[in-house]
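the two lines:
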Amino acid sequence: QQQVKQSPQSLIVQKGGISIINCAYENTAFDYFPWYQQFPGKGPALLIAIRPDVSEKKEGRFTISFNKSAKQFSLHIMDSQPGDSATYFCADRKLIWGLGTSLAVNP
Amino acid sequence: DSGVTQTPKHLITATGQRVTLRCSPRSGDLSVYWYQQSLDQGLQFLIQYYNGEERAKGNILERFSAQQFPDLHSELNLSSLELGDSALYFCASTQSGRASGELFFGEGSRLTVL
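prediction for all of em together
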């Protein structure tokens, strides 16, 4: 089964720092690159997504960048805040999900 | 609030028993997905229904079954429960059956098998 590999598994960042999470995929038919955010006790919620016709998309402090040749896409969180502490997932076509990255932002 | 409702929120039962988890999708959404989330396995896709028909199947055990009813709500049935079935079960919905696009998740049903 084709996989989606996230890294790192966990991440600790100081308030105001930059958080970077990576996702490597195998399926070359991938045409939608989402990042979901999950808080404890809640279901995942779409944070930001990109389609392969653009290399970068920015929404506020969150940027998703896409590298087709490397088959990777990344989430950058600028000026990280304690409220960003959550688990982040990437996914392939809703069927195959990364194992998640647990982000802790220290105040 | 995603608009997706799951019941029950918590369920404690014994090995060998059978439980039913219920999901009401967002108004207008035709597609329902079921996922299992455990600590070491991340989010595992179980099954997808679109407008009452099974559309895709993932790592769903034979002891598990699901269906989507004419009013579009869905149920996930888990039988002959084992300790390893303890997990969070999420339902998500979306308007279309397409592979891309946003999923809207419920808050999950936490199953504990003792």
